[in-house]
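__Protein archive entry__

___
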Amino acid sequence: MNDQGVSQIVYSKNVVEFVTVASEYCATIENAGHHTPKENLDKLQKILPLLYLKAALLPKVESVMEEELEKFVSELDYNTVHQKWLQLLGEHDSFYEVFDPSIQFGDETVTASISENLVDIYQDLKDFITSYSIGNEEVMNDSLAECVFHFSEFWGQQLVNVLRAVHMLVVGDVDFTEDTSDEAAPGKGNPKWLDNFWGTNEEED
């Protein structure tokens, strides 16, 4: 691919719009401590579908460099942001996953973490937008190619999964000021909306 072809891709309308939404998502994840849980979830309810749409519109891109891309989100960065979201969501962080390729034909269930899903997505997007902001068109191209691949293979599924959990927390009108000292578990006296979400609501005596 010649330099002109790379330039046309990395500065194309769909890519620039994706960069804008990805940057807004990363800022939302990083600045979670400045807002209430409800404010953060309300914002995620709107930005996650938009992020998925913009990622789905990205062009197929081929890498042009031989060397690997630099990573910018360290393990410490990941853990710091993850802990922030864990504290923010408390007992509401866990949800039962509906789609998992390894269990979709069985009766097992998988417990997933909202915070872990959100930060996994953040890690990929933060690495991408940091590489993109450097301004080297070959680096921009290859970081885009990697981001598109990871969207198809990893974080696209994580996004649609966690959106379901975020939606339930938003429409369930959860009170995050309640005592969260007891761990939430299916069918263990959780709020009605949570047992409905897990499908473990019990009939009243």
Notes: Strands lie at 94-97, 110-113.
